[in-house]
Amino acid sequence: MGDLEAVLGRLDDIRADLTELYKDLHANPELSFAEHRTAAEVARRLEALGLEVTTEVGRTGVVGVLRNGDGPTVLLRADFDALPVLEQTGLDYASTCRGTDPDGNDVPVMHACGHDMHVTCQLGALDLLVAARDRWAGTIVAVFQPAEEIGAGAQAMIDDGFLDRFPKPDVCLGQHVFPFEAGAVGMISGPSMSAADGLKVTMFGRGAHGSQPQNAIDPVVMASATVMRLQTVVSREVAPSDTAVVTVGSIKAGTKDNIIPDQAELRVNIRSFDERVREHVIAAVQRIVRAEAIAAGAEREPEFERLTDFPVLVNDPDVTGRTTAALRKELGDDRVQELPPVVGSEDVGLFGTAAGVPTCYWFFGGTDREKWLAAKDAGTLNRDIPSNHSPFFAPVVEPTLTTGVTAMTMAALEWLAKS
Amino acid sequence: MGDLEAVLGRLDDIRADLTELYKDLHANPELSFAEHRTAAEVARRLEALGLEVTTEVGRTGVVGVLRNGDGPTVLLRADFDALPVLEQTGLDYASTCRGTDPDGNDVPVMHACGHDMHVTCQLGALDLLVAARDRWAGTIVAVFQPAEEIGAGAQAMIDDGFLDRFPKPDVCLGQHVFPFEAGAVGMISGPSMSAADGLKVTMFGRGAHGSQPQNAIDPVVMASATVMRLQTVVSREVAPSDTAVVTVGSIKAGTKDNIIPDQAELRVNIRSFDERVREHVIAAVQRIVRAEAIAAGAEREPEFERLTDFPVLVNDPDVTGRTTAALRKELGDDRVQELPPVVGSEDVGLFGTAAGVPTCYWFFGGTDREKWLAAKDAGTLNRDIPSNHSPFFAPVVEPTLTTGVTAMTMAALEWLAKS
Amino acid sequence: MGDLEAVLGRLDDIRADLTELYKDLHANPELSFAEHRTAAEVARRLEALGLEVTTEVGRTGVVGVLRNGDGPTVLLRADFDALPVLEQTGLDYASTCRGTDPDGNDVPVMHACGHDMHVTCQLGALDLLVAARDRWAGTIVAVFQPAEEIGAGAQAMIDDGFLDRFPKPDVCLGQHVFPFEAGAVGMISGPSMSAADGLKVTMFGRGAHGSQPQNAIDPVVMASATVMRLQTVVSREVAPSDTAVVTVGSIKAGTKDNIIPDQAELRVNIRSFDERVREHVIAAVQRIVRAEAIAAGAEREPEFERLTDFPVLVNDPDVTGRTTAALRKELGDDRVQELPPVVGSEDVGLFGTAAGVPTCYWFFGGTDREKWLAAKDAGTLNRDIPSNHSPFFAPVVEPTLTTGVTAMTMAALEWLAKS
Amino acid sequence: MGDLEAVLGRLDDIRADLTELYKDLHANPELSFAEHRTAAEVARRLEALGLEVTTEVGRTGVVGVLRNGDGPTVLLRADFDALPVLEQTGLDYASTCRGTDPDGNDVPVMHACGHDMHVTCQLGALDLLVAARDRWAGTIVAVFQPAEEIGAGAQAMIDDGFLDRFPKPDVCLGQHVFPFEAGAVGMISGPSMSAADGLKVTMFGRGAHGSQPQNAIDPVVMASATVMRLQTVVSREVAPSDTAVVTVGSIKAGTKDNIIPDQAELRVNIRSFDERVREHVIAAVQRIVRAEAIAAGAEREPEFERLTDFPVLVNDPDVTGRTTAALRKELGDDRVQELPPVVGSEDVGLFGTAAGVPTCYWFFGGTDREKWLAAKDAGTLNRDIPSNHSPFFAPVVEPTLTTGVTAMTMAALEWLAKS
Is the ipTM, as predicted for this complex, more than 0.90? Predict the structure, then answer.
């Protein structure tokens, strides 16, 4: 314990630099697989810390390896891509960046999911661990993953030979900043984050002048009717005791008011925790889309394209138990909570699944404690506290950064520390 | 009559050149107020014909004046902008052009409304009239108008001093190619084309991660519910004996499947022939949009922005009678039909309204006669014959071009010919 | 003219009795094919007038024949059934009657369509014609038809041998009270009233406890989605220049809040003036109903039952011209107007169609003139003037009654009067 | 144990009679507060068993008291009303009964929720307990409750002085037959059945003839749009991790296809397990109903009438633990399962709440074991196994009856048996 406090002591020396780094990353977000600036900065810092650095793993991923004698191999994972969201936080380090989305559109970009904090905390933890290398033995594989937001980065790294090119881990650890009380950490054993299936749906109508609906098969109406009908999947087809989400995150058709376009595009996101529910919901979405095309008299079948395919993230019970205990020792019992399963998705689990080893993935709070408590008391958490992917989402830098560095460091040492 | 046939005889000499011109214009469409290449070509040709040419009238409009002694002043009007439509005609002179829409997006551009044919026919008619200037007396004001598609070009020219800068017309004439039998012409006295009101509607929700609908106010659902409800304006609120159209030509919200966006945009186009109906429909659209925002629990009122504001186009009974008779003399009774009112809109009428003089605006067919008759017999006109603004719309060059040149020339001579 | 005024003079003698009769009929409405009391009263009065009376023609229909020497045979037709509507007029002779609908339900009954006035006026006209029998020659076939509201009575009388059992008419005349200025009459030549197609649609789901939607296929949602989608037939599939109405007059599913029922019933009414439009709309309704059942995952196809099948009512141009002229002579030009086609339906035309003779059917106003003019000026006719089938619909007795008797008498005499 | 087996032994003697009773009750169901025949039969049998019997407690309820020396007082509760469902089981003892619902309609009646089995089992258990009265001491208060289906019977009995007129219980026990494996029993400690709120919603439009939608404010469309919008409460406003159900069990408007009615009625049922969710959902339903009336241009606000108001049923942990253990001793561990919370509702909890004593309420299976297992393996439980309130729901008589009698007897003896 005394030892570990000494490890963490160095955080006071690097906190200003990490804060600087965090704000710089926040101001310079990059879309999935376009994280070139971010990857270069990560690589530069890993090299400065003395790790063996490999870049362009799975297109833009970075892996740093720190070998420190015999002992277990621990994979630490941070993701580093941002989102096509127009930042509205009003922060002085807010992003004004733009990027090009997969369809070639120019879009705003924002770290609306906190991956900038993940990178910062993991680099901070690595700094502490390097400084304290005499207190532990083993190998750290530090993964900086691209393209988590589109569920493609972990798979891309694995497909790029990750398991063969780097030391095989014994355990995979990672963390995510989340809109609860900053300073606190939470996790759950078992199914921890939902499966997520992304579908791009294209519905085909027939275009015509806006004044001649009788000559058209109106895809705007077709798509709107479909959106309304899709609400019934969760409201009527999923048992109240099961959990599923069907979100149409994007609807697009036409450009002018007076031209009826010839097609519409929906982007549908499906969440579930159970394979049977997942299959039913996907089938129901497809059934409804097809039937609404028939209702509209469409002459061409809708098309479905798979956008993402996240599996359920399962936290290993033993590893989760050990990690919980380790963090409680450092942070105190009341700051390490059991969370309910989160209806969000992550591809972090693919590393453990591919390697056949257990995973533990936890959350750390990013919301100002006072604000959080006030909103909780008022029952207005939903309204007042921006959640991940909101244009208003940004963690308070402290104590978020300190908690994230501490949690990652302590969790790694639980496996690596010399006894 | 012999005289007039002589006037039209020259068409054989210039038909090849006009055809070339038409295909060149078709292959090089330009969006509203961006018709720089088109305007330059028009100006070049007007100058070659010896007209007094003024460019940049109402931003990109061109006016040619031909003074030929004492007599009436006839305004001939062609519009020359194109549309943000991706051409799918498969023609060898199909457009592959792109342009920038008012929102800054890069979009495909196509002459999907036949304005290229309007320009070609009016230039052809002017050539014939110049060649036959000893047979008539008076003044021709040849208007080549920009930005008809957004209902802004005629007003822009008028606001730019059109009435003061050019001879005041006694009558305004114009024509539009339309998906009926090529070789034929049609018109109607009285209300001839509908009023058109374009509204951009922005509905405000609250963004959240796609897995947390409870933290969002989903604008995709809000907008879709609104589209479905807007259908009831025409189906339930407009008397069966009245005419109205409510088209949502564009719906846009979000970019990714797993982010619930914070707003949605609808572009709504409203057609009507009667002021009372027009007011009721516009009010009903606004009522529904506002109520659906309330139903969704929106925290911010929807916003409405006026996009277009076309008045009803009213053909003067006397002028229309004379024009009909004149065209029948040349084309034959069966090729000059009375059409029902067209539920499309035009700003051509603004010239006559501003000048306080009568207008006659007619339609000429652009569809291959055989195809037209076959589809008419089969009752599949709607399915088989692409209408204006369709990505498949393109007039057959002949006899469309010959008919358009002939009609414009004969109509002008009805007012100008020496008796 | 002097003669005819003499004929009408007797109206002053019988007006009080007719008023009494009207109020009695109004207070005692009977549903379609259940008009036993009404038929008995009609038969009694016809006999008193000396006509040959036949009852139970087409179940509850009554026919009176008045032979008066050589001359044309004129069919005069009044319908006499009422509607399942709960009267809310507040009149002292308002109905409090109830009846049994075709499904066996006990329902309120009201003369909400003015058939009581039709009967009264036709009996009044017959009285006048009997009294003036020396002034005309020919035969009157007075038809008192049941079950017009369900489009079944005329066909039932024809199927019951009407054409063989009674003198063949040369012309068919009839009239309907309508919510415009009392004292006035209106009609139009050609298509005068719309085709009407009534469909009963049954959609099949699967019942379950209200807390177990996952075990149900919810027919309430299925039917509601269908109603919303049906709005698009008129708003998107019918040309703005065509006329069609799709009304879902009744929706029924379930009885308790906490049981999801296993089926839903819609009653759909379709109006049109053109056979091609009619066919398209009926097909579109069926397409949408079937597709919405598929969207819901229904295990059984929806069922369609034909409720009514009214053809377009076409007024013969010659007969309509003569009738208009005759009424103008008596009522004055300004009280006999040309009306636009009415989007209501009638089976009166079946008599003429079956006999191969022309029909003229006109409307007479039932709304207090002051109220009518005030609402017209205020543009609130729709809101302030109850229309047929409204629970508030009731003609003002005068001058409605006088006008109806006069119009029917004069129209008959146009054909029968000795020259 | 040996003792208890002796107690249950008598079941062989009375099983035929109980089976007879069950089929008789099933064939003669009665609606809520109309259970006169049932109450009479229950009273007759309780008297025959020697209990003190009081009838008409809370209108039609029956209470039997069996005093057997000093000891605890155990309340045993069975409910005995049936549902307005048309039985479609095809059983030879199927109901053909009809009744009058609260709106005065004649409706079919069926024991579609198994209350006939509850009555039979409780009478069987009382018979066994009377026969074995030397083995236990204390007081049994046997409650036969009316009107559970409308959530009114328990409250009615309490309002009728139940707590003052009968011995105060120390514990409340009850059971419900459910569509799982017959022979098995299941329960859960804590929130066990959901809150249920029933709302009757009346939406007001304006009636008109079906051909004149412009004169109407169509309540069929208004109600259908509302139903579609209500789906979004569960799909968008309730957190995926929370549980809620919004069922529109009944929609009614209009009677004829060609009359647009002037109002529509929805019956909405809301389920939840958490007070905050409950309040949010009820408020959201009201917000949507009101906004959809505004969207329709309604001139009168919708009205809400409370139909039912079931609280959450909470099983006391200690009592549930003891009961589970007691039943496992008799039935075996594998036949007494822990169930997830049930999204159905019950007013049984009101007795315990009013008396301030703990409740345990369990479920016993009613589905043939072979059928159940086959459907479970096939993943077709939802499709193949009729649930409560289905027209096909009927427990297999055995081993359901034996299990229900056994469970009730053993649970009572857990508190009453002489040690």
Answer: no
